[in-house]
């Protein structure tokens, strides 16, 4: 497994991290998680060299964190880099965000709320520290909190040893620069796949400029680029309203993956590994977050970290993606 530095933190992380949104199960996925299989998946990821695991309280109201906490009992905690988040709550007020099932989520990045959240996460994770604490969604009115106050309490948590590094998800370049005024920002999460390359125009340049790791989430477009879905697939739950799960777009994406067949043969890899490798090959500061719910998915996708695509093949795949998005 290829390793890389996490921003300026000095923490070493695997080039691929395990995302656990789906592991949490619940209304967003129209199913409950098989806890035993989920724990086995996390353990298998670490056995295969993935030392970075990402979770959040918002993943089925703490269930993902609880499952990770159980998995950590079977692992050497000091060898696992845990990311969890703050800023999305359901048990206190904030700015209304969206509903998951019948439960309303709120945005709240006030120092008081973050203090409560970190203790709740530590309890669910059954650990006494969090390696990377990340703001999940940014503060907006009417419960707006200045970035200076949010970063201020995060800096305090670092000094207290409850967190080791600070990250931010769903941010703009200007928000990143605001964070940097008040403290060290080591990682930024942004959606990045061969079918969604907006970060190349905004987040990636500012991350490179400031030695911040860009962690790409949804590199398989919620499973579409795994190449396993049938052409008559009808999306439900979190997939239903997504751009690439609309009938015309989904058909074009599947045509694109069919055209990858010679490349899969050339690099001796699966469609999903090729899609993941494409993202990781874009820049050395990119870390990739791959969701998995079964050990065999980890075994299939972990090889992507070692695939070195030629410039010609990278451009060929980009052109095929442009055709799919015409």
TrEMBL record:
Which is an annotated GO molecular function term of this record? oxidoreductase activity
Keyword Oxidoreductase appears in the UniProt entry: yes
Q: Which CDD domains match?
A: AKR_AKR11B2
Record's superkingdom? Answer: Bacteria
Keyword terms of this UniProt record:
Oxidoreductase
Q: Which residues form the NADP-dependent oxidoreductase domain?
A: 15-321
Cross-referenced InterPro entries: AKR, AKR_Detox_Biosynth, NAD(P)_OxRdtase_dom_sf, NADP_OxRdtase_dom
**The UniProt record lists the keyword Ribonucleoprotein:** no
Q: Name one GO cellular component term.
A: cytosol
Q: Which SUPFAM superfamilies match?
A: NAD(P)-linked oxidoreductase
What is the protein named? Answer: Aldo/keto reductase
């Amino acid at each position: 497994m290829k390793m890389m530095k996490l921003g300026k933190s000095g923490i070493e992380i695997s080039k691929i991290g395990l995302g656990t949104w789906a592991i949490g199960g619940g209304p967003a996925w129209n199913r409950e998680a098989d806890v035993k299989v989920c724990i086995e998946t996390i353990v298998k990821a670490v056995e295969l060299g993935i030392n970075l695991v990402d979770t959040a309280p918002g993943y089925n109201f703490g269930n993902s964190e609880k499952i990770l906490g159980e998995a950590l009992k079977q692992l050497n905690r000091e060898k696992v880099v845990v990311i969890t988040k703050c800023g999305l709550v359901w048990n206190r007020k904030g700015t209304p965000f969206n509903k998951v099932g019948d439960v309303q989520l709120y945005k709240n990045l006030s120092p008081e709320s973050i203090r409560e959240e970190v203790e709740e996460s530590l309890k669910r994770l059954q650990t006494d520290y969090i390696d990377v604490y990340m703001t999940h969604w940014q503060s907006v009115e009417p419960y707006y909190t200045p970035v200076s106050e949010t970063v201020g309490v995060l800096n305090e948590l670092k000094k207290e040893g409850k967190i080791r590094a600070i990250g931010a998800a769903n941010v703009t370049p200007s928000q990143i620069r605001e964070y940097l005024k008040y403290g060290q920002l080591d990682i930024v999460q942004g959606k990045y796949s061969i079918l969604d390359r907006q970060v190349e125009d905004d987040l990636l340049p500012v991350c490179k400029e400031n030695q911040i790791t860009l962690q790409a989430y949804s590199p398989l477009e919620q499973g579409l680029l795994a190449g396993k879905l049938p052409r008559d697939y009808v999306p439900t739950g979190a997939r239903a309203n997504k751009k690439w799960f609309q009938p015309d777009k989904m058909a074009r994406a599947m045509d694109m993956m069919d055209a990858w067949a010679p490349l899969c043969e050339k690099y001796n890899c699966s469609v999903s590994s090729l899609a993941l490798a494409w993202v990781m090959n874009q820049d050395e500061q990119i870390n990739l977050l791959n969701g998995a719910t079964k050990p065999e998915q980890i075994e299939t996708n972990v090889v992507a970290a070692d695939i070195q695509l030629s410039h010609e093949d990278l451009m060929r795949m980009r052109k095929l993606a442009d055709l799919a998005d015409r």
